[in-house]
Design brief:
321 residues; mainly alpha; rod-shaped
Length: 321
């Protein structure tokens, strides 16, 4: 008779249920992903707010201010041409440009409520310019002399200044070129005004205020434009900082999450698989015909119940031998 060696198998199944342990494992794995998803969504919405502010507020306001500056220059040119030629089409062009300027200022105020005082000041300046121009138009009814010689000198001087500017434009930056061109236009405007004043002395009391108010409106529009382009630059810088912060934060959180998930994937499956492996070894041992098996059971749940059933089966087979 062959001696049969009694062998003991240790079944350690912490917890009360294998089903619950699997559910807990899946829940933990899902919870691990929550910080990464939450941070990604947060930075996505934060970036969306910045882009929305740039696209729908700051950049449109800056563009409107730029267009307002152009329309103010058009209004000044039309006013100068009307004083020079007294053609009604220039008067209509002046009024149309000023109407557009007011509409643009109102739209800027709607986009940028914090700039309401500046916008209101610009509207007041444009209204004052309109009143002063209306006063200048009324003085045009008085007799005048044609200042042909002065106008010719002003035109020749303006042409010479433009030629000099074009020759030097290859070596200058765009911003500097625009500033110098603006200076040339102001100088030409002054020369034309002086020539017209010489022909019609009544305009001498109106044109200085007219020029000052138009220049103030132009300066206000330029200030609004620079402020809003400055906001665009600030928003762009904020977006870049947000991207860098998101990269660092998500990298750190992802690394921590990866380490935790790897630890959980090693520990939790081991708690589930190890008692099953021990139970398999016990069944394989019994399959060889040796029913001298003892089980050291710890814990509870389905695995322990299965081990008890195997233990009862081996006990029954051992008694039947």
């Amino acid at each position: 008779m062959r001696w049969k060696i009694r062998k003991s198998f240790k079944i350690f199944a912490p917890g009360s249920s294998l089903r619950k342990r699997v559910a807990y494992s899946l829940a933990i794995v899902r919870l691990i992903l929550v910080p990464v998803i939450f941070l990604a969504v947060y930075y996505l919405f934060a970036m969306g707010r910045i882009v929305d502010r740039i696209v729908n507020v700051d950049a449109p306001a800056a563009k409107l201010a730029e267009q307002a500056s152009i329309e103010i220059l058009e209004a000044r040119r039309a006013a100068r041409n009307y004083i020079l030629f007294q053609d009604p089409k220039y008067l209509r062009a002046n009024q149309e440009s000023l109407t557009k300027v007011k509409q643009m200022l109102v739209r800027i105020g709607d986009l940028e409520p914090d700039e309401a005082p500046t916008v209101q000041k610009g509207l007041d300046t444009v209204n004052r310019y309109q009143q002063q121009f209306a006063s200048a138009v009324s003085t045009m009814r008085e007799p005048r002399q044609e200042p042909e010689e002065r106008l010719r000198e002003a035109l020749l001087g303006y042409e010479k200044d433009l030629d000099t500017l074009v020759k030097a434009s290859r070596h200058e930056k765009r911003a500097q070129l625009v500033q110098e061109l603006h200076t040339r236009v102001v100088t030409f405007d002054t020369r034309i005004t002086e020539a017209i004043q010489a022909a019609n002395p009544a305009l001498r009391q109106v044109t200085p205020d007219l020029r000052a108010s138009s220049q103030e409106a132009l300066q206000l529009a330029s200030d609004v434009e620079q402020q809003n382009w400055g906001k665009v630059q600030m928003d762009h810088q904020e977006a870049r900082q947000l991207i860098r912060r998101a990269e660092w934060t998500l990298s750190i959180v992802s690394a921590i999450t990866l380490l935790f998930s790897v630890s959980a994937s090693l520990i939790l499956p081991g708690q589930v698989a190890k008692p099953l492996v021990s139970l398999k070894e016990a069944v394989d041992h019994a399959a060889t015909g040796n029913y001298e098996i003892d089980f050291e059971l710890h814990g509870g749940g389905e695995v322990v119940e299965l081990a008890k059933s195997v233990q009862n089966l081996t006990s029954l087979l051992r008694r039947e031998q």
